[in-house]
Amino acid sequence: MKGLLLSCSLIAVALLKVNYAADSKIFLATGVGNLHSELIDPTTKENNCQNTPPYPKRVTGAVGGVINDNTTPLVCGGFPYEEGIVYTDLCYTFDFAENRWSPSDIALTSPRRFGASLTLPDGRIWVTGGQGEAGTTASTEIFENGTFGPGPDMPVPKEDHCIVQLDETRTLVGGGGPISTSVFIYDWSTQEWEVKSPLRLGRRGLSCGKFETSDGLQVIFVGGEGEGYFKKTTEILNVDNDKMVAGPEMEKENYGAHMVEFEKELFLVGGTDDFFSTSDILKFNVEAMTFELTEASLKEPREVFVSMIVQNDHSIRGLLRKTTKATSGECSKTLTRLSVGGTRDLQDCER
Ligand SMILES: *[C@@H]1O[C@H](CO)[C@@H](O)[C@H](O)[C@H]1NC(C)=O
């Protein structure tokens, strides 16, 4: 009996090891350069060496979210800087099972770049602000029932700002360009904007994320560019009592990163320190109020990109089994053994 239990649990452990333990992954696409799309788990260094294709267009400042019950990335808009046009409304979807981007019938209601976006708890996607034909815009769009339509205007135009979902009903937007200190919360249940305490310094290209302490719900605003320089500094808003205070400094400046909440922890993914894009993933340690370099890193340095949480379902696991190394250093061996895509996989993975 004891032996049977033991072998059952061994099998369970073995199964867990085959499949990635996490229920979700972070999907990243676009940025500056011809970057591969990538799936990351910031809690492990055994992420990379996937052979996921680049976004079909070299765009920066795109927006997006996940559709089909958090399984399908949808990326739209941005600045296709090679095409002699400065804004686009085009969207592409990524199919994990096929490991392929496809042009989509979905389009933004108006071309825009450098907006901020997220997937709302009810599965709709909210795209806010950015630059369009009429300059920096306060307009927003909501993806609902298969199509983008108008959303509530922000109180002021914003581009290159940050956005974070606070709870089931409230979304915060902060900072952005033209270099701004303003912070607002939209409450979907009352359909009203609340003005919050401003940032102490104007910042664009900042990142923001939420966390809880015994003092309540907090939002940290990280880095960005203000008054001609990139920042190491952060600020923290106590959402409940509306106090904005200085937060911890990072070791390096950071612009164009994403703060991502993953398994109840906050990670700062990518960005640039003014000179170089980074592939670093920092963890924000809420207890110690410090930024810690994690062992995880991006396959490629990336700034001004789109990130979203995707469900780690069977098609993602299939893709990872086909294209990911099992442990660091074993990339080519694993791929050779599986011989999926042959030498093309190998070349893409050997970096
Ligand atoms: C989307 O579909 C739902 C359910 O049919 C409906 O309640 C909602 O009003 C629709 N939204 C829009 C924008 O058409």
Descriptive labels:
351 residues; Neuraminidase; four-stranded antiparallel sheet; 38% strand; disordered N terminus; kelch repeat; Gal_Oxase/kelch_b-propeller
Task: Detail the topology: elements first, then pairings.
Layout: H1 2-18, E1 24-29, E2 38-40, E3 59-60, E4 63-67, E5 72-76, E6 79-80, E7 90-95, E8 100-107, E9 116-119, E10 125-128, E11 131-132, E12 135-136, E13 140-144, E14 147-151, E15 162-165, E16 170-174, E17 183-187, E18 192-196, E19 207-213, E20 216-222, E21 225-226, E22 229-230, E23 234-238, E24 243-246, E25 258-262, E26 265-269, E27 280-285, E28 290-297, E29 306-311, H2 314-323, H3 331-338, H4 342-349
Antiparallel strand pairs: 1-2, 1-29, 3-6, 4-5, 5-7, 7-8, 9-10, 10-13, 11-12, 13-14, 15-16, 16-17, 17-18, 19-20, 20-23, 21-22, 23-24, 25-26, 26-27, 27-28
Helix pairs in contact: 3-4
Bound molecules: 2-acetamido-2-deoxy-beta-D-glucopyranose.
Residues 144-145, 149 line the site of 2-acetamido-2-deoxy-beta-D-glucopyranose.
Low-confidence stretches: 1-21, 326-351
CATH first level: Mainly Beta
Q: Quickly give the CATH architecture.
A: 6 Propeller
The end-to-end span amounts to 49 Å
* Main sheet summary: 4 strands, antiparallel
- Please identify which CATH superfamily we are dealing with: Kelch-type beta propeller
What is the typical, i.e. mean, pLDDT? 86
Question: Given the helix and strand composition, which structural class is it?
Answer: mainly beta
Number of helices: 4
Report the strand count.
Answer: 29
CATH names the topology as: Neuraminidase
Strand adjacency order, main sheet: 4-5-7-8
Quaternary structure type: single chain
Strand content: 35-45%
Q: Any ligands, ions or cofactors bound here, and which?
A: 2-acetamido-2-deoxy-beta-D-glucopyranose
The count of domains is 1
Give the overall shape, derived from the CA principal axes.
globular
